[in-house]
Amino acid sequence: MTIRVLHVASELYPLLKTGGLADVTGALPLALVERGADVRVLLPGFPPVVAGLADLKPVARLAHPFHAHASGDEAWLEQGTLEATGVTVYVIRAPSLFDRPGNPYMDDEHVPYGDNAPRFALLGWTAAQLAQRIDPLWAPQIVHAHDWHAGLAPAYLRAAERERGRALAKSVFTVHNLAYQGIFPAQSFYQLGLPHDFFTMHGAEFYGQLSFLKTGLFFSDRLTTVSPSYAREIQTLSQGCGLDGLLRQRTHELSGILNGVDYAVWNPATDTTIAARYTPSRLTKKRDCKTALQARLGLAQHGDALLFGVVSRLTEQKGLDLLLAAVPEIVRRGGQLAVLGTGDPALEAGLLRAAHAHPESVALERGFDEALAHSIISGSDVVAVPSRFEPCGLTQMYALAYGSLPLVHRVGGLADTVVDASLENLADDLATGFVFERFEPEAIAAAIRRAFALYARRTDWRTTQQRAMRQDFGWGASAERYMALYRELAG
User: What is the sign of the dihedral through the CA atoms of 440, 441, 442 and 445?
Assistant: First the structure.
């Protein structure tokens, strides 16, 4: 039996990307299609989404139960095709809610839009409408919602089932990052057309406010998160973000399924965005990528300098404050640092000061540029992902594929994917990067020293690079786990 699955999310690579969520929703549906599922994706009608879809055609008018947009504005559902993969995409056209330039979540001052509650409630409500056959030609058996933006989908589905007196579809809710919860004032709830009894401690209410994320966690049939270690960590007081009690109650319905890498996009042998293509057996060409990156960022053209790369949001969660404190040690040892990202103004300012103080050794490019991200991953010797916590992390898996050894904190998906270059792991042919245990300056400094020490032993370094590049974190195994979950739910 072919299982019909609707993925509900706010981003989809290559149409719209602000982080790893887009990479997942871009690659996972295709991996599921390859395993026989009938998969479609539902997205808000942000301008890049609408512009990037082919063959858009109307499906239905959306007479939704709340009125966030101006009188006379309409919302409607359209269907198109993502040409890169052939996946069918539903898009919600509501111009006053979604047709805004720039970031999909916040304005030019980095302030979240004041109407984000109804904007993303419409996403969840429309998912439930699709389960009720608003498209007469297709309805999902599984509604798979991603992160807080889609958190109300399971609740709207549960409400519709109550009203109709029968089951419509099963729901899966995936937490990509528990720290981002979609919190809104309590009065927002009563504008969204959900049953009033859903707003309780055993429901959508979270310390007197509305939490989209908690709503998804409570009302979905099954929960997943993006790595096995993170599934354990979020059930603890220290990493549960106030939701660890609920997650422990649902521990038998929670699965940690590691995200995968789309090797059609992230493959140094075929990547047309980098200076030179290379493979584990032809690693000399990687040096050309390093030279090109140094030239692009104005770093000194020292081929032997150990180059650390960062592609990240510049936030404390990502541990960039810890790395910033280690910059003097990197520079003192003759290393270099290339950073691409934007975020916390204090971190940006600190990195800019380091770049001004050491222009030949430190470079910061603010913003996000997909091609430059590939250049940093390919041109760096080490890719640093020193996160305080990390649900999965894709950057370290991209780095492995490119032979750029990851330097990571042992948390979440970082712990699940990188093996430290300790003497015993090197001897046992296991090492793929550098791992520090404690989130402390001394611990990251020790990992940085290990990186310099291994880099000085060029044969061992090359062997470790080749081992890293042979790791397989493709979507195959993860897609099989999702398929098993869907089959279980579909009965």
Answer: positive
